[in-house]
Amino acid sequence: MTKISQDISLIITTYNNPAFLELILKSILSQRLMPLEVIIADDGSTYETRVLIDSYRKFFLVPLIHSWIPDEGFRVAKSRNKAIARAKGNYIVVIDGDIVVNKYFISDHNALKKIGYFVTGSRARLKEEATINHCQNKDERFDLFSKGLTRRLVMLRIPYAHKFIKGHSGLKNARSCHMAFWKDDFINVNGFEEDFEGWGFEDSEFVQRLYNNGLKRKNAKLMAPAVHLYHKESNTDNAINNRRILEETINSHKKKATKGILQYLDSSITNAIK
Fold first, then answer.
1. Is 100 left (phi over 0), alpha (psi -120 to 50) or beta?
2. pLDDT digits (tens, 9 = 90+) for 149-200
3. Rounded to whole angstroms, how far apart are CA atoms 149 and 192?
């Protein structure tokens, strides 16, 4: 019988890529430990994504929730904040809509969680041709020897050796495409900063605020393997302005987002943490 976590909510971001999302959902169905719920943080996808999610609900032993916002540009911070505001779990695992996970992904994150820490993980990369093939064949299965992988050593899973892995203290490889944290810690920093426009530095700024609030960072290396599907890079037109926001957070030791998750929470929760 498949076990279900009582405290882990899995958040998956997506935007108009049902082929990728289907591979991700299939990889979640194979989990040895299912999350309490799966919430799709949808930044304005069209009806194809809704149809896919509706079709997969009948296969899931846990709630599969579609948290959708209108398409008004790149607003992944808002889509994540609104999705996490709905989460019932007290521990949040976040992956992007291009990350396919190993069957031990949730159980490994369950083992990694620790009060006072957040977790960042790595991902192997799949080349373009192999990504197309996996999408056409609807094949979510990957291992160390899968064709088309780069950074394939990320697929090594050796839990007993993880204790020898050092944590991080900086922003290097601080990517929200594979990250986990306590929901209370997320609320305490007011979630992701919605003042960011377009792609770039939003996840680093979030991590910096976690640091500014005294949290430490764990590395998921040798656990929770994942694969990044190939796609063209996002537009970086706003990178300079977004970098400025990050630098302001670093220099001012800012602890809370100016515009974040608190606007979507019940007032009793908001007042409790002010």
1. beta
2. 999 999 999 999 988 887 777 787 777 889 999 999 999 999 999 998 777 8
3. 31
Write the single-letter amino acid at 83: A
Contact 16, 49 (CB under 8 A): yes
Alpha carbons 75 and 196: distance in angstroms, whole number: 8
Exposure string of 103-141, with b = 16+ CB inside 10 Å and e = fewer, is bbbbbbbbebbeeebbbbbbbbbbeeebbeebbeeeebe
Task: Look up residue 235 and give its two tokens.
Answer: 């537009």
Q: Which amino acid is at 147?
A: K
Q: What angle do CA 24, 25, 31 make, to 5 degrees?
A: 95
How many Cβ atoms are within 10 Å of 69's Cβ, its own excluded?
17
pLDDT digits 0-9 by tens, 237-267: 678 888 999 999 999 999 999 999 999 997 5
The rounded distance, in Å, linking the Cα atoms of 41 and 99 is 14
Q: How far apart are CA 16 and CA 233, in angstroms?
A: 15
In this predicted model, what pLDDT tens digit does every residue of 223-242 receive, in sequence order? 999 999 999 876 666 788 88
